[in-house]
Amino acid sequence: MSGIIAARLEQLGIDLPTPAVPVASYVPFVIVGDMVTISGQITMDSGQLKYIGKLGDEISVEEGYEAARLCAVNLLAQLQVACNGDLDRVKQVVRLGGFVNCTADFTDHPKVINGASDLMQEVFGDQIGSHARAAVGAASLPLGVATEVEGLFEIG
Q1: Which CATH superfamily, name and number, covers 4-155?
Q2: Which pLDDT belongs to residue 21?
Q3: Which pTM value belongs to this model?
Q4: Residue 97 backbone dihedrals phi, psi, to 5 degrees
Q5: What angle do CA 150, 68, 103 make, to 5 degrees?
Q6: Which is nearest to 41 in space by CA: 154, 143, 156, 155?
């Protein structure tokens, strides 16, 4: 991997992992025309789950932010595969969907999913990295993780 985005990732100290294989009946990404939809990515780090639990209970907003950021790193790893190793092909981060495993009274979903959004802007810059977004709460997420993030990207 070489190029502007690769250099930016290195500058940020981010080494993209080998993407996780799906754990259910889905594919990691689908390309239609110039759009790539990446399936939801969870808080897997070096083959181990991190950030297990609920926001508003045992997981703090700050930890949730880091969990969403980790999901975004995993999203980028899948996107890199979809782009045949060249993240400079990304023309626009179109949309992120963020899911927060939380208690019924938790209301800081946006602050948590900012972890993913902020990373996209750090990696791609404001023009390409700015995106539409949803940040919603869930009673549970796969394997008990605190966050899950999916994405839609335009590539060239």
Answers
A1: RutC-like (3.30.1330.40)
A2: 84
A3: 0.96
A4: -115, 120
A5: 100
A6: 143
